[in-house]
Amino acid sequence: MINEDMVIQQLDFIRQITLYEMVNLSEEQADQMPKGFSNTIRWNLGHIYTVQNMFLSKYGGKKIETPHRYLELFAPGTRPVDWEGEVPTLDELKQLLVEQPAKMKEALIGQLQDKAVKPFKSLSTIGELLLFTIYHEGMHVGTIRGLKKLIVE
User: Fold this and answer.
1) How many CB atoms lie within 10 A of CB 3?
2) Percentage of residues in the chain with pLDDT exceeding 70?
3) Residues with Cβ within 8 Å of residue 148, at least 6 apart in sequence
4) Collapsing DSSP states into helix, strand and coil, what is residue 115?
């Protein structure tokens, strides 16, 4: 059984870590792609936001809107080298990342035990899907940290 308060606490905690990685990050730094990496810090930040929404919409059946442009830029399989046109600024990404946990809580509170409309592998409840997105975010924070070591420090 999923403890809803603990899951929400983790959602907020991990998001604060993600947002901390944006402190003093420039637009230029966000777009650098060192050798050995296939994506940038900007892509990782947008991907975190987009995948959390996508997952809970597609598998959880929740009405969580994601701007179409974000799906084009940040969905799994996308890469910055293929981008055309404008991309979101760091301020825009930060605002969405700040607002997202509250939107998740609003959409999901009291429903974490509910069955997903479509299981993802062995994950069959809304809570399990949300926990996976938190894990996924942590993986991408690790990538962001690796990129920053090569770019910023």
Assistant:
1) 10
2) 99
3) 21, 25, 29, 41
4) strand
d(CA 90, CA 10): 23
Strands 123-125 and 115-120: antiparallel
Domains of the chain, start order: 4-151 (1.20.120.450)
Instruction: Name the band, by pLDDT with cuts 50, 70 and 90, for residue 2.
Output: confident
pLDDT tops 90 at residue 152:
no
Residue 92: count other Cβ atoms within 10 Å of its Cβ.
12
User: pLDDT tens digits for 28-64?
Assistant: 999 999 998 999 999 999 999 999 999 999 999 988 8
This prediction's pTM = 0.95
User: Alpha carbon of 20 to those of 7, 44, 96, 122: distances in Å?
Assistant: 20, 14, 14, 32
Distance separating alpha carbons of residues 84 and 52, to the nearest angstrom = 23
